[in-house]
Write a structure and sequence with these properties.
heterotrimer, A: mainly alpha, 26 helices, C: 0% strand, elongated
Amino acid sequence: MDIILLLMLLFPLAGAVLNAVSAGRLPRRLSGNVASMAVLGSLIMAIAGFILLGERTLVVSLVDWVSVENFSASFAFLYNPLAAIMALMVTFVSFLIHLYSVSFMREDKDYCRYFAYLNLFVFSMLVITLADNLLFFYLGWEGVGFCSYALIGFWYQDPEKAAAGRKAFVVTRIGDVAFGIAIALSFFLFGSLSLTYIYGHLGGLTQVSATVLGLLLLWGAMGKSAQLPLTVWLPDAMAGPTPVSALIHAATMVTAGAYLLIRLFPVVRLSPLALAAIAGVGALTTMYGSLSALGQRDIKKVLAYSTISQVGYMVLAVGAADIIGSMFHLLSHALFKSLLFMCAGYVIQALDDEHDIFRMGNLRRLLPHIYWPFLIGALCLSAFPMIGGFFSKDRILLATFLGPGIIYKVFWAMALLAAFLTPLYTFRMFFAVFQERPGGRSAEEIKPVPPFMAYILWPLAILAFCDGLLNLPFGPGKDWLARYFSVLAGAVVALPAPPGYELSMSVGSGAVILAVLLFTYVLYRPPGPKFSAPRLEAFLFEGLYLDKLYYSVFVVPYERLARFWWQTVDEGGIDRGLDGTAQLFAMLSRGLGYWATGRLSTYVKMLLVGLTVFFSALAVRWYLW
Amino acid sequence: MDLHFLLPVIVLLPLAASLTALATGREPRLCRWVSLTLAVVELALVILLFFLNLKPVAGPTGTWLMAVDYPWLPGVGAHFSLGLDGLSLMLIWLTAFVTVICILASWNAITEKVGSFHFFLLFLEGILMGLFLATDLLLFYLVWEFQLVPMFFLIGIWGHAKRLYASIKFMLFTFGGGLFMLLAVVALYILHGRQTGEYTFSLYQLAQTPLSPAVQGWLYAAFLLAFAIKIPLVPVHTWLPDVHTEAPTAGSVVLAGLLLKTGFYALFRFAFPLFPGAAGASMLLLVVLGLTGMFYAGWIALAQTDIKRLVAYSSIGHMGLMVVALGVWNVMTLSGSLLQLVNHGLSTSALFVMVGMLDERLDSRRFSDMGGLWQKMPVFGAFFLFFALSSLGLPGLNNFVGEILILIGAFQVRPVVGILAFVGVLLPVIYLLTMVQKSLFGEARKERRVWDVGPREILILVALALPVLFIGLHPGPILRLFESTLGHLMFQTPLLAQALGG
Amino acid sequence: MIVPYSHVLILASIIFILGAACAVARRNLIMILVGVEIMLNAAALVFISASLFWQKLPGQAFVIFLFAVAAAEVATGLALIVHIQRRTGSVISDDYNHMKG
């Protein structure tokens, strides 16, 4: 088993190194294929590992990394059902996206760099998935952060795109500060950074420590998962190539935050306050994401805000102490969101890099291959009854409703509202893109796109559609995923809902969703929406002005103060002060220089005076003594 | 076989090499090759020491892995005594390595007075070897002040526009501090002599002098001032940006990679063991100054328009973190800071080497003249990004190990300091990524003619990248080396242990 | 002694001060030399009176030395002054200020 896990990690790393070192000398096809094969190797290893693992928990320790006295960090794996499923998802989705990328980047000259980073990203994400030691986890964490930076800013010739990459890195790093402190605190509390050790030694943990640790981990997760208030990097991250958005900003990196919280759930669940905070953040973010998505025009930005909202659900689920629900939704979302992104990528390429949904239209007729995958994705996202995200979202809503105290009911209401807004923004986008409209696109404007890019999406579409089978609340395969995860500490297989609750909630939400779909259809029927509210639209478009707020409150003062410190304090103050001291000496020297007149009479006078003083002093001394 | 002669050879070989460089000065090509060969021989000798599997041995000058002691000025009690332990071993390796890098990096850049240039460079190497090995206070003072002489000439002759201002400023700052230190050394010498009747400059003997707190305070303050100027600590740091901007590439590399380390090293090796009580009392001051340096320099670095100045301020920030580690005084933070000595030496040298390469191509260090360089120089861009990432502490690369040890260690003992340090480590991310952004990304300017890195430059960069990666992933052997140093310092120096409560 | 010792000393110091004043206050090189001569003679006076007071002979012997030295010094000094005067055409000390600053 050790070999399997090691190979799972090393295949993508080798692929990355190969691509990096060959530095563009490999032909495009070979480079892409090497990278895809590497991930395929990982996928095979992940499948093998999953099958061989069963229901146990395995700890595999490799080399020691850093150790000083009683501090020790090593490259060690914690392979349990959670990690197994996550690894499966990561490798599978990555593999499909690699294949898709080979077509998508067919005209780009920098493919070697692209595939090197993409492989390195898969490696880092697998480190996060498998790591037992928190510092090793942090290695993967920062690794995905770096790859995200590099891939978002991939088309660096455009300084705005490069700036988007930097923004992502910096904002997530702000989250990582808290994660680092959490690691330090963990070492302080437990004397070890090994998750296995921590799981077994939770006895002496005080309420306060657990709360502080939980809150710190929440802040850390917020950065990577783009939760409020650190959401601002994700919409900008759409500057990267679409497969990158599909992989990093739909399926993997943004879910890493939720994954962190789930991995450390045994610690977090000891503090109700931390759980409530987590749930609060999740709930607020779902609302924020849904509202903002409603005002977007760029197809990728709609999906970006949608991701923010959906990851909010995952975080909310953790806060409601339902890690199974969170993981279930994580898996569903990975499938349908990456599907949606890749469909969007197809559309964007077909229309020669057009991102604005209101400049599309008629694409059902013009791009038939992509219509059905896109529709399936949209239905899953909207939680259409019986399909895809319906069961996972339902479970989360139920878990939230069952949470302790009135506050959870408030969170439930927010999440519910967001759930109703989801079909609205999703199908606003869908209709704008695909419906027949007089102002839509025409056949001459379509650029040829390799059909492979659409065909590769079908496995994903089918999986997303049938995703509910993983954890049906009824029928022969009932609660399969929940039972698989039951070995995890704190996992609740069946939510303690009074009978009938579940059914009534599902039926109720299903009905409302269908109603909203109908409403959206009516609203956005050609020739287009009949009302407009420009101020509201602008507010939603700008993401509730959060980005602008940060810019004026943090970025501008920071840069201004940097200049101030430099010019006024450092150069003006300290340096000028020291230069002034030097000037003082120069002045003193010049002052003394007046005595050196060069005239003999002056010197003779000075000699006389000096000698007189000297001898009289001697005489006085002698006389007195 | 008694290999003790290796130590004086390691100190004297570069001095001899410098003379040969001067002698071959008329033939620049010969001079460069001779200097390079001798520098590589020196590096080989130092690496040989690693393989000797030395163990700590107690002797008249203390507990060292290897020590020599020759009488020098018998009338005064000064000895030519050198002592090697894990810390000095790493630092002399760094010195030898960085010197080789400098010679390679200046291959095409220095075209006038080549003989004198290599003379000063190798002479400086010898002096630094002496500095990291000296265990006699007078010898130490001699090499401490003497390191200024070749630097003064290196900056003053081969530097940029305002080089004379920079070299004089450097000289005055450092020499001024050094004079106070001389005063303290002589005072200590006399006090020890009066008490024990034996007049000696040996570090080991002087460390056992019982001193009254007031006296100790003054002497320590003098030492601290001299070293604080060198490290540099805010507010006596203002010489560093000017000197870095005006120095030639090799000058900057040696300055950042080696000379800054001497200040920290001397604080650790001399100031703390000699004056444990006063040192213990100054911990809070060190922490405050270190944190100030981290935040202040890190903040200012963002506003820079000259890339070399930016890297100079980043040096101040990194050294600030190391001083915080010293102020917290915990095995983890001390291991981290000693490791950071090596790490920072490697990363910052690499950054300066690359900035030097940029200067060779663009004839400018201003960001406004850069932009879009990745397009024409992809290999250069990759290495530049690599070293920028190592400098901002990406896990898997060298700086991360040192930093995380310092951060976690600091948190264990003083949580507030730890938290502030964690936040402070965020700042390099911002300015280093901005540096990369402004230089590598964006639109390329068509009218400029730049060329990508050639074989010699790739050799330098790979040589620097390999230790960076190695230390990042496998720092174990080096941390082992420091264990004996720390054990000796923390627990066998009774006065220090007592002053800090063990 | 014919006159009290202190009287001679006072006389000698007056002469010395007069000589010093002359050397310091005058601009002409030759007058500076004259001042120096006067100071030497004052010193010689002190030597003689001391020799008389202490009834020891070396004091007077030293005065002979003094005369020899004074003569040599004046000779050299005058030679230099003549040489300088020929080169620059002035015997005013203030004109030789090349070491100014």
